[in-house]
Design goal:
Strand content: 25-35%
Distance between the termini: 45 Å
Structural class: alpha/beta
Helix content: 10-25%
Number of helices: 5
Number of strands: 26
Radius of gyration: 20 Å
């Protein structure tokens, strides 16, 4: 509560960032994020709660940090935020050139192929962050998730009330998928390759006699592929992107093997 109070005061009056006590509070919040003891967003029953004050601390972290040179072997960086360390102690496998910034949490059993995890992000146990996948600032990724090659999870810092991207437990995200603007993907869902989900994307369940439309949310166990729908413009009618829910993962199938099986059963590419 004391940390939160100091952060809220500094958010209202940026002059307080000059005080040592305030700077210490901001750095403490970022350190707690790095350890997974604080989260930008956390489960609250069947929904999620955004901790706005924690996001404020991340934003306030940038102006109090100084630019410095970071050298990693022959590579040189020039930034305000240090890189994560002690992966062996954390129980995380990190393949060159995977990078996670200080202030992100990567739980034990995570595998990071050459990829990027930004400050404020949370990547839970057993998740695979595949080659050139990016986990944006404050994005929340659950347990045993597979982020395939080239997946982009958007980051969000401002506005502070905006929800981050949330990928719940046991989700499979296919190659080159893009999930941004606070979209939430429910547990055990499967996104086929090249699915693009934004806050305004239409997500249409076509498995029943009539379409059911969602926005910003993929229901649990859904199998999703890219699609198009017609839209009228001044120049005529054209097809615009959408996402189609074409089935459900079978609960009788083992979670790990069903990731690919769910796609094959519905003739969806990985």
């Amino acid at each position: 509560m004391q940390l939160q109070e100091l952060i809220e005061q500094a958010w209202a009056d940026r002059a307080l960032l000059k005080a040592a006590e305030t700077q210490q509070a901001v750095r403490e919040v970022v350190s707690l994020l790095d350890q997974g003891k604080l989260r930008v967003a956390e489960p609250a029953g069947d929904d999620w709660k955004v901790n706005e004050w924690v996001k404020k601390a991340v934003i306030l972290y940038f102006p109090i940090q100084q630019m410095e040179v970071i050298e990693v072997g022959p590579f040189e960086f020039h930034d305000k935020i240090a890189l994560k360390k002690n992966y062996q102690e954390l129980g995380v496998r990190v393949v060159p050139h995977a990078i996670a910034r200080h202030g992100s949490f990567v739980n034990k059993g995570v595998i990071m192929m050459p990829s990027y995890v930004n400050i404020g992000a949370y990547v839970d146990e057993g998740t695979m962050v595949d080659t050139w996948a990016t986990v944006g600032s404050c994005a929340q990724v659950g347990r045993n998730v597979h982020l395939s090659g080239g997946v982009g999870l958007g980051g969000v810092l401002e506005p502070v009330q905006a929800a981050p991207v949330i990928i719940e437990d046991n989700v499979f995200v296919g190659s080159r998928c893009i999930v941004v603007e606070g979209v939430r993907v429910g547990r055990e869902a499967v996104l086929g390759a090249n699915v693009v989900l934004t806050a305004s994307s239409k997500i249409i369940d076509v498995t029943g006699p009539a379409p059911v439309e969602y926005k910003g949310y993929v229901p649990p166990r859904s199998v999703v592929i890219p699609g198009t729908i017609p839209k009228q413009f001044a120049a005529g009618e054209y097809q615009v992107p959408c996402a189609l829910i074409i089935g459900k993962r079978k609960e009788s199938t083992d979670k790990k093997t069903s990731l690919n099986d769910a796609l094959r059963e519905n003739n969806v590419s990985v």
